[in-house]
Write a structure and sequence with these properties.
The protein is of the alpha+beta class. It contains nine helices and eleven strands. It has a single domain, classed as Deoxyribonuclease I, Chain A.
Length: 293
């Protein structure tokens, strides 16, 4: 759980992001005899939702981004935050087809922020648009990478909010990336697709005035990645992941027979942001040229 305070213009607001654990997850913890956390009683079904909502009310953040809200927990959290905390649920999306039936949601203080427009999406649905070359690969490791990424239903919800105190707009977003540490390259692709879909959302809903700065984006979530060395963290903080990074698909899945050029928003052709999945080719990262091996 993380709470961040950010000053837009002359004002200050707080942003909370928290993976609250879906019901099946915490029930597995309770069933595990090795789980001896002294706060074990707080996870008991009779107490958990009360403790969760009370803690959110005590933190009293201006914007709340939650992950792993499931069909059992979301109604209680929504009702309590709206009736007792002055919140409004801005956007929510639940994966009804997965066993956990969980997803993400964003709440904001109704007297502080005005929701202008929202979006909810799964990263896998943008594969064909942004990684078209990968979709053409039907076999081998490239085909496996496409299929494995395509079947993951990880999602993101986002909202364009207007600060009632300053008149400034900002985008609040939350996501939950694939969990398995065995597939960091899938998480990296999801982070890239997430970035591109958020870029589309902003460009579709803000004026294209070159003299007006685009809204700030605050992305909070469970990325199942650790700073500072994970590829996801590097991509989101530096807009660049080199092909020799140990979590890049080139390093994890050598032998692909396709080239993927994927540029993060704001980058340009020839920059070091390019991702390349190549056979028998290495990159000269200084000048962007390719040399046969």
């Amino acid at each position: 759980m993380t709470t961040t305070t950010i000053p837009p213009s002359s004002s200050v607001f707080s942003f909370l992001t928290w993976n609250v654990l879906h019901t099946a997850h915490y029930q597995r913890l309770l069933a595990d005899p090795t789980f001896n956390n002294p706060k074990r009683r707080a996870l008991a079904p009779s107490a958990r939702q009360v403790n969760l909502t009370n803690h959110l009310l005590r933190l009293n953040a201006d914007v709340v981004a939650l992950q792993e809200l499931d069909v059992n927990t979301l109604p209680t959290v929504k009702a309590t935050l709206e009736s007792k905390g002055g919140y409004r649920m801005v956007s929510a999306m639940i994966n009804e087809t997965v066993q956990a039936k969980d997803g993400c949601a964003i709440f904001c203080k109704a007297d502080r922020f005005e929701p202008l427009v929202t979006t909810e999406f799964r990263m896998c649905h943008a594969l064909d648009k942004y990684l078209h070359s990968l979709t053409q690969c039907q076999s081998g490791l490239g085909g496996a990478l496409y299929r494995e990424t395509r079947e993951k239903l990880n999602l993101c919800v986002a909202a364009l909010l207007r600060d009632r105190l300053t008149g400034c707009d900002l985008v609040a977003a939350t996501t939950h990336l694939f969990w398995s540490p065995k597939f960091p390259d899938i998480k990296l692709l999801q982070a890239y697709l997430l970035s591109r879909q958020l870029e589309d959302f902003i460009s579709d809903n803000t004026p294209g005035d070159p003299f007006v700065s685009p809204p700030a984006v605050i992305l909070g979530g469970d990325f199942n990645s650790t700073p500072p060395n994970s590829a996801v963290y590097e991509l989101l903080t530096k807009a660049s992941v080199q092909p020799d990074h140990p979590e890049h698909p080139v390093s994890l899945r050598p032998g692909n027979r396709i080239v993927i050029t994927a540029l993060l928003p704001g980058s340009h052709e020839g920059s070091l942001v390019q991702w390349r999945l190549l056979v028998g080719v290495k990159n000269n990262v200084r000048d962007g040229t390719e040399t046969s091996m």
